Amino acid sequence: MPLPWAGYAYGVLTVAVALTAFVVTVRLGTCAVRCRARNGRLLMMLSGIATLLGLGLTSLFDAFDNVVWHHNVPIIPSAWLSAIASAVIALWFEVFGRYAVERAEFERQLEVLATTDPLTGILNRRAFLERGRALTESAKRYGHPMTVMMLDIDHFKQVNDRHGHDTGDEVIRLFVTVVGRCLRQVDVFGRMGGEEFAVLMPETAQKGALIAAERIRAAVELSRLDWEEQSLSVTVSIGAVVGTHTVDEALKLADEALYQAKRDGRNRVVLTATEGDSI
Does the pLDDT of residue 277 top 70, yes or no? Predict the structure, then answer.
């Protein structure tokens, strides 16, 4: 005659295995989405998810089969061994799932550190150039208009000298926020160093470039920073180039236009159109 406690113990074990399998399945699925897993890692995670789902469903079926439907039938030793093996597999995937989540988060943090400016959260110089090369090459290949701007905060050194570097950092953060509100989602915005920034605007010819640049200039001029009982405002000089160039050529031409804006008195836009981009 089968021992009652054995059936209940077996049921508890198999249900615990099933719940663990389902929890780890959710963990792996979440990790695959968060870390945007691709290729080998995605295949490995999908295999793990399929294995755990099968394990969980099988364990639930075994629990009902041996405890509810056939509770008078003794549980054979191989069933116990199978349940213990399933528990070991589920626990191994739990460890693997935790490692996968931690590894994905670590890699995400590394990617953020490698591609974003720590002060402002926008693209750093290297990431901007990488993104810009891909977009400008595509624009050049298909003959689409592309605008590249260089932006420089006017008299920023005086802000640091008079109010301190902490205030200067807040001015840069405010500047980035204001400029970001003037851009489209498809535009690329990066910090090139210090108080210099760059914007790349796909599918933007001369007329649209001038409107966008003036919108940025006016928004920066109207913005004010209230910081430690001080109210500060800054202006920006913008050099822009429209045409089908490489990103390095465009940045050089935009930088020349920027210096022309500085020479003309700052707080202004100088735009250069080349290769017939006058629309």
Answer: no
